[in-house]
Amino acid sequence: MLTSGQIDVIVPGVRRLVARNPGYMTGPGTNTYLIGAERFVVVDPGPVDEVHVGRILEETSGRIDAVMATHTHPDHSPCVEALARASGAQVLGRPAPPHGRQDATFAPVRVLSDGDVVRIDAYSLRTLHTPGHASNHLCFLLEGAGLLFSGDHLMEGSTVVISPPDGDMKQYLGSLERLQHEPIASIAPGHGEIIEDAQREISAVIAHRLKREAKALERLRQAVRTNLETLVISVYDDVDPRLHPIAQSSLLAHLLKLEQEGRVWRDDEAHWMIRE
Questions:
Q1: Tens digit of each residue's pLDDT (9 = 90 or more) over 159-180
Q2: What contacts 266, CB < 8 A, 6 or more positions away?
Q3: Exposure pattern of 178-212 as b/e (b: 16+ CB <10 Å)?
Q4: Are 97 and 111 in contact (CB under 8 A)?
Q5: First CA to last CA across the chain, in angstroms?
């Protein structure tokens, strides 16, 4: 089981250093990845923490060419600025969107687009724009190894929260389906252990989300007209009720997707109904 501060070799040229931010939503902590041999790229250094910055500098001897963030949620990118300042590394990624719980300090000198490649030593990381959990979310595929640095797009042992307005369930499912056509063998998530059978996991997450969506439609048919706070209790009746406030965000994302598709609608009092 992972613990804060733990460091492991994932594959040759890739190490995982767990940031010191364990918690309810972060598990053991944010996974920071150090990629390279003589020179390094760092992915997701996590929240601001001088001790963690020191560990990264120690493990890389300060030879960091680039620091990248998969997205700008506060458990992934705030440490980028301090690490870049300490090492002279370039900051790569996508700027924070104007809405949602985002890290406004993240200021990439190079904005990464889908298909961009970042090279370090003999390693190449191909950028995949995967909106859904966040509109600016990126995954990075280590070419030749089939290892995907997934940030919060996929994580071990849990589904991720999709929180509108920046989170978008339709985009999220589309991004997952896109990954089914990429040469991905294993997943290095932003939290938790390595996922060894990537395509099986991707298919399972898609199936789980669609099953939850079907359950929401079924409960709406039974209720006829209901609000989000009531609907979450029956749609997530297999989940600890203490998680229902968080589950409301993902349920809203499902309903907004269904609304876009013309399958449900809501009235002026925010009650949801099936559109027959």
A1: 999 999 999 999 999 999 999 9
A2: 255, 259, 272, 273
A3: ebeeeebebbbbbbbbbbeebeebbeebbeebeeb
A4: no
A5: 48
| Residue keyed to tokens 């200021």 | 107
Cα–Cα distance measured from residue 105 to residue 89, given in angstroms and rounded to the nearest whole number? 16
CA 260 to chain CA mean position, Å: 23
User: pTM of the entire structure?
Assistant: 0.96
CA separation, residue 10 to residues 119, 127, 149, 219 (Å): 19, 20, 11, 43
- Which amino acid, residue 269? E
User: What pLDDT sits at residue 1?
Assistant: 82
pLDDT band with cut points at 50, 70 and 90 for residue 128:
very high
Q: Which two tokens stand for residue 204?
A: 């399972």
Does residue 100 have a pLDDT over 80?
Answer: no
Q: Indicate the pairing of strand 147-151 with strand 186-189.
A: parallel
Q: Which residue has the tokens 């997707």?
A: 257
Pairing mode, strands 110-111 and 90-93: parallel
**Preceding peptide of 165 cis, ω within 30°:** yes
Q: What span, in angstroms and rounded, lies between the C-alpha atoms of 210 and 64?
A: 41
